[in-house]
Amino acid sequence: MQKTAIAIHGGAGTITRASLTAEQEKAYRAALKEAVEAGHQVLEQGGTALEAVELAVVHLEDTPLFNAGRGSVFTKEGKHEMDAAIMCGKTLEAGAVAGVRSIKNPVKLATAIMEHSDHVMLSGYGAEEFALSYGLELAPESYFFDKYRYEQWSEVRDSDIFMLDHTEQRDEKFGTVGAVAVDQAGNVAAATSTGGMTNKRYNRIGDTPIIGSGTYANNKTCAISCTGHGEFFMRAVVAYDVSCLMEYKGYTLQQACEEVVMQKLVAFGGEGGLIALTAAGEIAMPFNSEGMYRASKSAQQETFVGIYKA
Question: What residues bind substrate, as annotated (predicted)?
Fold first, then answer.
């Protein structure tokens, strides 16, 4: 039987031991462990990689700890605009959603777009109308309200500054969540979800819902979910670039990830990381920032949960 594996992330950035209290660290580790083990259980029970990554991301969207779903940051208007994507490595089918405001779990909407439409990406009101037609759960503004996120936004709402998810000006946290998995049939999948940038304007959209930039899956190479400064990840077409290095230059997963994350992105100022795995169950979780919330589980091995560089 094919070895199953799953990896997840909850964002990258200036995440150091000094930036988290013991209580905060415990909460983050518990949330990551719960999400990755929920996804892995799906795989062990014969579920698909798509089902596993969707469930893992739903777990992360449902906790206010991460900048996705319930924990999404505030826009300039004091609203929440969320993006998400999901992709199947076997068929290269994908679904993505951008700039939705009232969807409880944007990753579920991305899945519905992939499965029930002829499109890949829907945005704004049209995406919300599509969600209603398929009975996806909506949530009121109050559901997305988080005191910490509100205070974060209050610091900059009267300025033209937009911020990545952080606690202090110097502490950048790129608050995207994502998952990659391989199932018993050897198929891979990737899913990513985000609330974007605090105080963002003009319906700004990042790399998360852009297939090939923030999310990509192909059985021939790998499944990838990115987290970082989206503008750089779009310009570098990060997720697809890793896949291309494997497919056309014969790089291993680790070599391809190191080349893109540690060399290419760094060279022009891109900060962040990604999670990736192959159909053989090989996992890579590189990041060029101070830390990245991450977890993984392969077959019957112990669950790994990490936050800092070492």
Answer: 204-207, 227-230
